[in-house]
Task: structure prediction
Amino acid sequence: MKKYFFKSVQISVFRVIRVPYLWLKNMSEQSENKKNESNGEWEPKIIAFVCNWCTYVGADMAGTGRMKYQANVRIIKVPCTGRIDPLFLMRAFERGADGILVSGCHPGDCHYNAGNYHARRRFAAFRKLIEFIGIDLRRLQFSWVSAAEGKKFVTIINEVTDAIRALGPCKEYQSMALEPPKDKVMPE
Amino acid sequence: METKIINKQDLAKLIDGLISAGARTVAPVKVGQMHLFQEVRSPAEAVFDYFLARRSPKEFLFPQTEPIFSYTRQKDSVKIHPVDMAFPRTVVFGLRPCDAAGPGILDALFAWDYEDKFWFNRREQTAFVSMTCAQADHACFCSSVGLSPDAADTGADLHLTLLDDGQRYFVEAPTGKGKKLVSEFPSLFKPATDSDAAARGSAGEKAKGLITRKLDLSNVKQWLGSHFTDELWERLSAKCIGCGACAFECPTCHCFDFQDEATPEGGVRCKNWDSCCIDNFTLHASGHNPRNIQHKRYRQRIMHKFKYYIDKFGKTLCTGCGRCSRQCPVTLDIAEVLENIAAKAASGS
Amino acid sequence: MSEYDNISNEIRELAAKLLARGEVDVVIGYKPTALPGRTQPAFAYKPEDAREFVFNPLCVSGLPLYLTKAKPEISAKDRIAIVAKGCDVKNIVALQRENQIRREKIKVIGVVCKGVVGKYGRCDGKTEPKPEDLDEKCRYCDVNTPRDYDYLIGEKIESSPQSKEKEFEEINRIEKLSPRERWKFWEEHFKRCIKCYACSKVCPLCYCNRCIVDKTMPRWIDPSSHARGNLAWNIIRAQHLAGRCTGCGECERSCPMDIPLMLLNKKLERESEELFGYRSGYNPHDPIPLAVFREEDDDEFVR
Ligand code: SF4
Ligand code: SF4
Ligand code: SF4
Ligand code: SF4
Ligand code: SF4
Result:
């Protein structure tokens, strides 16, 4: 199969989720910058899909508490983990994520009562499927982080980041997208 | 027509020579239980003792997915990046006469109201080497659409027929491109004698004998012209599930769709194969679908191939390769449909 | 007369009777085709149409797909009778479970089946296929006698229990590979996909009016047939069948590019059984695993 995607597709965004789109964009720009600053050292790109009611508030808490965590993660806020379609995760990989974290309310705490229970089943199956296809499951992690668990959020982000950094870039996906053969697309 | 002899070792050398010359060299390759046309890196990968490739070779002129341009968006403007229209030299080996006939049928379409540069630039760069059939099955009906399993002149640039000794191919070069290919590798092609020509003749007769399905299509077009609505359509094609299996493997189906694959910052516009049997082929933005039920979609398949295309371009849009019948998940045998139509036409109903 | 001639005759008689008495509007069955080694789906609307019906080991197509809203030509008929092997009945049960059919409007003509021929198997259609010619799903069949029917044709037989080890041999082998090797394995297969969507169109459980691949606002799956688009499609097709697929094998049989889709389906079938305790196609009152939950569902993968 031909690979002919060009650079800007990699620098990519979620169209439907407006605010996160900016974040993601920033992320790609920032990580480009980071590359330059740290002399070409590769830095992982991590996307965290978090729910509005628990994990996002937990992340906020980490922020207001001035807790530090590694800056590789970009957060996409959704109403509920139940809203997260496996397609979101595939898109994130397609557009250059090296790792993904899905995080929501603890069981029993869902703002919509059962969204996280549904998500849990969906992802229990989905992670088995993509593992079977050859994605290392360290690249797709799940957590429950409540509004009060700023500290847990920090720990998880750091751990996930370290794990992905150790794994290296998600070459599988990145090899599929991206640049066209040079002779195929002419500059204007 | 220029005729020559090439033996099996020299055919391998020809392939080798083309690869070394930097040509994209394509031949049937065994993949699992099927054969597919694929680029080969050595002659050993090519398999010529085979029946028919699962997919027709049209993809070398008309790829399933083809970027036609890409674009990037700046603040208030869009930059268009055109695609390079220079395509690599390609030689496709091992086609069957029904495969080789496809491009010639489609030229008229791609040159019609707009000359499709993607098609013609590739066409110019591509040479086809066909071979006389050694196998056929009951889905094959090439001789009913004016072709034949040994025909050298269906569209290929070179046509090879394996002679009785199983070692030497009789070479016919019906086109200028074919002759050039021969002159490029003069040491590989030997002169053909009269007895070789006779042997080629008998090998051809043998191949013709493989075709068991004979259809009488003489009245079909006329019947189609007056039977846009008929009980036959639903009776025979309600079972069609509306997949793209038939059209995507067909050497003559050429429908495509434009799709953008994009982010807010830019994207690629692609031309992708499509099929009239798929339900949203004719779906309007309003939600209305003029071909709202499956038999109307399948009717388009038959109408286009055996009436509209003939009306417009004077050629039948089918080479009788039988791929659609073989691969159809529900065995909707196009020959059976044509037999039914022919019978209806003959009985005047 | 062979066993299959008897079965065919019984189907013809029963179908003709149901149509003549006006008990059903259409009977869905199989009829011969000119192509050797094949049969084709057929619909009988009048008693005399039923004369064409046959049943033999070449009757591989799953007919329940014609019961769904994806096939309104047939499924819009009020009362339908359908010839169904054990595996087809599993699909009928799954459709019933998903409220896609009203079982009481459908007369299931169950046929005892000793196995159908595989995609590359050989069989003359007169006697049952040799073991090596059997379709893969038939080797591990536990529903040779359908589990639900209104009429049963053929002598009831017991399915012999089969080794799970063998059934999942290839899946186990792939699971043991490294992620890189698994990726390579699937890359090789998916790169052939031509996005014909036969796998979904033929699946009785893929009945959505509008498939996710056809949605454009937003567009989630790249429509082009390149590595990325093909991978996304094949993953999502499998995911959408998770816990629902009955293992009828139609998708793999129909795939013109011979992509081993059953490996994905069976992998998820096993996961859904292990994780949630359900197997699709056995009980119309079972919930759909991914549409329900238990509070005590496995949490281990969540930190
Ligand atoms: S319509 Fe069918 S038989 Fe005719 S050329 Fe196409 S695939 Fe071959
Ligand atoms: S038969 Fe259908 S898919 Fe093929 S070229 Fe005609 S309209 Fe297109
Ligand atoms: S005729 Fe067969 S292959 Fe073609 S769209 Fe219909 S079901 Fe698919
Ligand atoms: S996914 Fe395949 S095996 Fe499963 S029910 Fe659908 S067609 Fe049958
Ligand atoms: S049937 Fe096969 S080739 Fe067609 S879309 Fe499905 S997986 Fe791809």
Chain C touches chain B through 41 residues (CB under 8 Å). Residues 164-298 of chain C form one domain.
